[in-house]
Write a structure and sequence with these properties.
transmembrane, 12% strand, 743 residues, transcription, six-stranded antiparallel beta sheet, 4 domains, transmembrane helix, single chain, alpha+beta, 24 helices, Alpha-Beta Plaits
């Protein structure tokens, strides 16, 4: 049992696994090589067969073309004038016959035709002409060209029965007039024409010369068979080999360790056969086999040797590393392993995990420090230098793009999400787009609803910046019902030392954005800068109507002011300051009257983004404020009612605090304190408001002189009237009359 455990422990070692891996790779490579070699051998055998098939095809084409050439040559003899001259006379013309003989001699001498001899059989004169003589057919085939098969009787029968073109098996002819002289193997080729029945052509084609010229193969084993399968010609050892069955539609068959390649000629119908012994093909493969086996054995021996040496050399440093880890890992922070690589991997994984945690911690701290460094730079707060701030000190032109995020009411009612989370998502999207399109840009969040990008555009990249901003606007417009952006683009600054100035410029543009809820891109040249000032007279009118609880008149005045602001294209800052001012004065007036000034509306001025929303805000706030004022008025207060009635009825007379207090049977000090507490204004201010209000009516509705108007409203001194009128309305009486307005 201990020996088995020891073997298992060794089997898990790096040395054993590495050596086994190398041997496995060697085995796989050997298998792959054997499979590859098997495919290669088969491919090589196929290529050899293809080579022999192509050679036989070329041989067949050459034979067929030559037979066609010979046929055409012999047919052309029928049109030869010498032959026509011979045929034109009833008796034999020896001169014409000699001319034909000469022509035949010239034709046979053409080496390209591979002719041994050429005969013309003159049926009418029973004469056989060839290249050197003329004789009767019987003499020609019994004395001059003798063959035991092709006798005179044979040819006499063929002259009568043969078709237009007939090629006979090759044979040798002996000559009795010249003992020992033979033609060698020749193909008799008989050509007849039904248009010229008086003549027949017979050619002796030199079979050996044609074979030498047209045959292409690794040996001389060659057959030619006619359409019926009769042997016409055989060369080499082929004459001794019996032919197997040759199935149609194939290129070769194998029989008795012999490859028989065959094709059929399209004109003659002959079958041409090449015989290649299997040993010839196998001999080429045997040489390849021996070479391959020798190389493979050497490669295997070398691979095994190198694997063992490499495994030993690799295992030594690994073992030293393991020993070092074991000596350092005395606290067992990492589980121990029997396998060296598992031990190394465990320790490396532990180190990488610790490194990742430290790196992540450093990244978070670095990001925090860099954020504070940028904030210090923007707000001109001196601090210690931080790594990563070198980008801000580069001598490169830059632009600041400030994104101000505003949320609409549906964001809180429909989505019910946190603004901080939505702002972080938008910041990440902006950072992704800007960093991708404008290399070197920095994007970070500086306020709850402000995202800042610092860009270093190259010359000519302004269009790219505009395209990038348009892409951002296009994406965020899909959620325009919930939020919108104000994008302020600062002018190009030469150096980052002016980063604070660029930020303040962008911030100023944000303040003066158009008063709507559309995402807009602002530049310095398209930001309205003209402030809007509310006339004092209108403000006094609003105040008086508020004190009187007259909500329609207050709203009419406010809407008139908003129309003027919209006409002048006032920015969002002007609208919000206007809303804050009206809100402040309304709450102060209610507080001065001793009324509750809280919960006048559900919205803050900063949440208002359009004129319609501001109008609804004013309508809700003013209506509620006037309701509270009117509720107080409805509560019967004899002192206040008596004092106000006395003033409104006798404003043309001299009115003093003590006079009215005496009329009410109270002291002047009590009346002053009580009136201030209940109405929110001093008694004398109320008297002046009533008198000036009546004066404004007279100035609008009559043509009385100003001094007459002053007298009718209780002012005996013109200076006092003018001073009080301008204090309350903001203009002099004459200016008020000229303006023709209802301020």
């Amino acid at each position: 049992m201990p020996s088995i455990l020891r073997i298992k422990m060794k089997a898990r070692s790096v040395f054993f696994k590495l050596l086994l891996s190398f041997l496995g790779v060697i085995v796989l490579l050997v298998i792959f090589e054997l499979l590859t070699y098997g495919v290669f051998r088969q491919s090589l055998r196929d290529e050899i067969i293809k080579y022999n098939t192509v050679n036989l095809t070329n041989t067949t084409n050459d034979y067929e073309k030559h037979f066609e050439l010979l046929e055409n040559t012999m047919l052309n003899l029928y049109l030869n004038p010498r032959l026509q001259e011979l045929n034109s006379k009833p008796d034999l013309d020896y001169v014409a016959a000699n001319k034909v003989t000469d022509y035949l001699s010239n034709t046979v001498s053409n080496r390209a035709l591979y002719l041994n001899n050429l005969f013309i059989y003159d049926v009418k004169h029973s004469l056989m002409l060839e290249k050197s003589r003329g004789a009767s057919p019987e003499s020609m085939f019994t004395e001059y060209y003798v063959n035991p098969v092709y006798t005179y009787s044979f040819w006499k029968k063929q002259f009568e029965q043969a078709g237009p073109m007939t090629i006979y098996p090759a044979a040798s002819y002996l000559r009795n007039d010249s003992p020992g002289d033979s033609t060698g193997p020749v193909w008799p080729m008989l050509v007849k024409s039904r248009f010229y029945p008086d003549f027949m052509m017979l050619a002796f084609v030199d079979a050996d010369r044609m074979f030498q010229a047209f045959h292409r193969s690794v040996n001389d084993n060659f057959y030619v068979l006619d359409a019926s399968g009769r042997l016409l010609f055989a060369s080499g050892s082929a004459a001794d080999e019996p032919l197997p069955a040759l199935p149609p539609g194939q290129d070769w068959v194998k029989a008795d360790n012999q490859y028989f390649f065959y094709t059929t000629g399209p004109k003659t119908g002959f079958t041409y056969v090449n015989l290649v012994p299997d040993g010839h093909i196998s001999s080429q493969l045997i040489k390849l086999n021996l070479t391959f086996v020798a190389v493979l054995l050497v490669a295997i021996a070398a691979s095994v040797t190198i694997s063992v040496l490499f495994t030993v050399r690799f295992n030594n440093p690994v073992q030293r590393i393991v020993d070092s880890i074991k000596s350092l890992n005395e606290q067992d922070t990492v589980p121990r392993h029997d396998n060296e690589f598992e031990l190394i991997r465990g320790n490396i994984g532990f180190l990488l995990q610790q490194r990742h945690l430290r790196h992540q911690d450093l990244e978070e701290k670095h990001a925090l420090l860099r954020y504070h460094s940028y904030m210090n730079k923007l707000k001109k707060i001196r601090g210690l230098p931080v790594a990563g701030m070198e980008q801000l000190s580069e001598q490169k032109p830059f632009r600041v793009v400030l994104f101000h995020l505003s949320f609409n009411h549906p964001f809180h009612t429909e989505i019910q999400a946190e603004e901080e989370r939505a702002a972080s998502y938008i910041r990440e999207y902006i950072n992704h787009v800007v960093t991708k399109d404008l290399e070197g840009s920095l994007t970070f969040q500086i306020e709850r609803n402000q995202i800042l990008s610092i860009m270093h555009p190259e010359p000519g990249e302004d269009d790219r910046l505009r395209t990038t901003l348009d892409d951002i606007v296009g994406v965020l417009n899909t959620d325009k019902a919930y939020c919108f952006l104000t994008i302020a683009v600062s002018p190009l600054h030469a150096h980052t030392a002016s980063l604070t100035d660029a930020y303040e410029e962008a911030l100023e543009m944000i303040r003066h954005r158009p008063f709507d809820d559309e995402t807009v891109v602002l530049e310095a040249q398209n930001v309205p800068q003209e402030p809007f000032v509310v006339p004092d007279a209108t403000m006094q009118e609003i105040k008086a109507n508020l004190q009187a609880g007259n909500a329609p008149n207050v709203l009419q005045a406010l809407r008139r002011l908003m129309a003027q602001m919209e006409k002048r294209k006032a920015g969002a800052l002007a609208y919000r300051e206007f809303a804050r001012e009206i809100t402040h004065k309304t709450t102060r007036l209610l507080h001065g009257m001793g009324l509750d000034s809280g919960n006048l509306t559900d919205h803050e001025p900063e949440q208002l983004h359009t004129v319609s929303k501001l109008d609804r805000y004013f309508e809700a706030m003013i209506s509620e404020a006037c309701r509270r004022v009117n509720n107080k008025k409805e509560a019967a207060d004899p002192i206040i009612t008596g004092a106000t009635a006395y003033v409104t009825e006798r404003y043309t007379e001299d009115i003093t605090l003590d006079l009215v207090a005496s009329w009410l049977n109270i002291t002047g000090g009590y009346l002053s304190t009580y009136f201030k507490e209940k109405t929110g204004i001093n008694f004398l201010d109320f008297v002046n408001d009533v008198r000036i209000g009546k004066a404004k009516e007279l100035l609008r509705q009559t043509d009385l002189r100003i001094q007459d108007v002053a007298g009718q409203v209780g002012y005996q001194n013109m200076n006092s009237f003018n001073r009080m009128f301008k204090k309350i309305t903001g203009v002099t009486p004459s200016e008020y009359r000229r303006s023709g307005t209802q301020m």
